[in-house]
Amino acid sequence: MTHELAPAVGLPAPTAAEGQSPASSSSEGRDWWRDAVIYQVYVRSFADSDGDGIGDLRGATERLPHLAELGIDAVWLTPFYASPQADGGYDVADYRAVDPLFGDLADADDLVRTAHELGLRVIVDVVPNHTSDQHPWFLAALADPDPDGARRRYHFRPGRGAHGELPPNDWESVFGGPAWTRTPDGAWYLHLFAPEQPDLNWDNQEVHEEFDSVLRFWLDLGVDGFRIDVAHGMVKAAGMPDIGHGEQASLIGSQTLPFFDQDGVHEIHRGWRRLLDSYPGERIGVAEAWAPSAERLALYVRPDELHQAFNFQFLRCPWEPAAMRSVIDESLAATASVGAPTTWVLSNHDVVRHPTRYGGGAQGLRRARAAALLMLALPGSTYIYQGEELGLPEVTDLPSEVRQDPAFFRAAGQDGFRDGCRVPIPWTAKGPSYGFGEGGSWLPQPAEWGALSVAAQTGDPLSTLELYRSALALRRQLPGGPMRWLPGPDGLLVLARNGLVCTLNTTASVVELPTPGRLLISSDVMDQPGDTARIPADSCAWWAI
Ligand code: BGC
Fold first, then answer.
1. Cβ–ligand 1 contact at 87 (below 6 Å)
2. Which residues contact 511 (CB under 8 A, 6 or more apart)?
3. pTM metric for this prediction
């Protein structure tokens, strides 16, 4: 049966809740970040220049031309700072130094310069919620039991119980187990993550000053902005009250908790916005904030706060048309209410890769390709996680002895599989680590990944890499503007944006429609007999109207 699709032209203009300010058409001008496509480089798994099996800054620099060719606007580099690597570098011992594993400051400088020469901006991570337990501040705090001395930079408390043998409250670490660890002198310190990641005390002005200085250090080196780790966690509820229900805290959850999404964090972000604005060239801040709702998340991107906040509601949305549509509507409405763009993301280094989330195998890949086209058709900015342009699945069978994620070892199953999305990406069909480096790779790559490599997919018009390349090139040419939904048959999402119609078939069968326009790109082979378009199962297409 052929379903009728309402015409995309001549409809009333969308309300503010339906769309956003028109996208700027290039990454050159003002507001470049409003529709930027930003590629996440997980440094240790991207490219290894020295053959030690661990990706590094020089490796990333050498591969930047691939990213320029892919058609992105900016890269986000995960932490490469001096760190004992208790949590993949999210435990920083020196915020102004490059860990020798990843290179040195000259390599960072070279990466930023090379990226700029290629027309790419560079965003780096900043980790302000906690330091490493090897940071000089924490070492000083451990050495001096005076609660009014060096310990004031962290959260040290006496324990409960007759002998202080119980933690100060019932908070659980995101990685499992109590959020408190006892020092040899009997005091307890707070760590929302691993014990090697003590939480900083943001009531202490010295902490503010130190991070202002760290941001300036990297801005002076030329970076274009920061991804702010745990941007919702720096402020804890006054008095650190018990939660009461003894539930494991979850980074990706939507619970209301006394240590996440407290109103006080916004003052910190306002201060950083002023600092970012004091530099030329629109340097940005992007919040990694897991907030309970789209409205709470939008508070992080008010005009005087950060520029972007990852839309994890979209990432967590199941392959279900009504849910997808309402997440998109709610996100656009919430961010429009504060004049910010929505920032779409499907995968990152903390979650199971989306082809696997969407069911795995051929079906998961089909859906992942379709989801990418949907995401790239939406108004706002988009993040791409390295390897998603290759359609890489999660690696689900890593043996325990190679795993490094602290969550795997501490949590009872929750969030315990972050190594599977961090396996080094394949560049060539053959070779020691499929071109990742001259040596091996810190996590083993599946044998079939040679066929998914950049080299193997390049030039194959049906490959996921060429789909991303074409979609990104087309996206640059599209005029942008707000979106609206058009009616469609059950299971088909149809959205229109200034000259573009995007059709997403979420069902397991072909859906027939009168051809909506000129086919621009499709995630699956499209059959178009006469004036009919036969939209394949789990596929997405863009049409010019
Ligand atoms: C990062 C994680 C990290 C955690 C603690 C995050 O949300 O993305 O990889 O484990 O913060 O720093």
1. yes
2. 3, 489, 491, 492, 505, 534, 535
3. 0.94
